[in-house]
Design brief:
alpha+beta; six-stranded mixed sheet; 13 strands; five-stranded antiparallel sheet; Anthranilate synthase; 28% strand; globular; 3 helices
Length: 231
């Protein structure tokens, strides 16, 4: 019996909103992130990523690790690298051709203080901020921008569902929710010398509609076209 590969649902959408302007729609949501670069789009500045509302959050101080899944919070003791690896193994996708280098998963930070799990060094610091040494969200839905090709993708993994039918159903549901509930900022009308959109106006214009009623369930990109409202 041949198993069906675990792949995300990917929709390509046409929008003219800059990544920065689009992030305005997500910035107040729980654990929102914006990965972007001011570098040349032909080099290190090619991709931008937006996400929010992770289904799992891991934070740690020392060997005390807190795992939050919705309203459920669990505290364990151990090595945070081992715990993160455990959850990455659970929520993994099979290798496949993604249009961007990040299609969902863990996002956050590892601090330098985690070095004491790797090697023994003298500790002369004063911990006056009491911040977590590790803070990671696991994201099932990512909005990805290819700034070089002027393409935007919604990538939905369907996690934390593990049953393949349930995961695919969740992936489709989450993708539809994003399209139905989010407006697109049509706020960029020109580009800089590196080809990046310049954000000039905070005005929000509703440009996205529900396009997925006829989705067949196949592992293909779904081309979505949005209608721009011109001034």
């Amino acid at each position: 019996m041949v198993e069906t590969p675990r792949q995300p649902l990917i929709a390509e959408i046409d929008i003219k909103s800059s990544p920065l302007a689009t992030f305005e729609l997500f910035k107040d949501e729980p654990f929102s992130f914006f990965l972007d670069s001011g570098m040349d789009v032909g080099k290190l500045g090619r991709y931008s990523f937006i996400g929010s509302n992770p289904f799992l959050v891991i934070s740690s101080r020392g060997s005390e690790i807190t795992i939050t899944e919705g309203s459920k919070k669990t505290t364990v003791s151990g090595n945070p690298f081992d715990v993160v690896k455990h959850y990455l193994n659970i929520h993994h996708l099979d290798s496949g051709a993604l249009p961007v280098p990040f299609g969902g998963g863990a996002g956050g930070y590892f601090s330098y203080d985690l070095g004491h799990f790797i090697e023994k060094l003298p500790n002369h610091r004063v911990d006056d901020l009491k911040l977590p040494e590790c803070y990671l969200g696991f994201y099932d839905l990512v909005l990805a921008f290819d700034n070089l090709e002027d393409k935007t993708y919604i990538i939905s993994t369907g996690f934390p569902e593990q049953d393949e039918t349930a995961r695919r159903k969740k992936a489709k549901q989450r993708l539809q929710e994003l399209i139905q509930n989010k407006a697109v900022k049509i706020s960029a009308s020109r580009k800089d010398k590196y080809g990046r959109w310049l954000c000039e106006s905070p005005d929000i214009d509703t440009a996205m509609r529900e396009y997925l009623k006829g989705y067949s369930g196949r592992d293909k990109y779904i081309k979505l076209r949005t209608k721009e409202k011109r001034p």
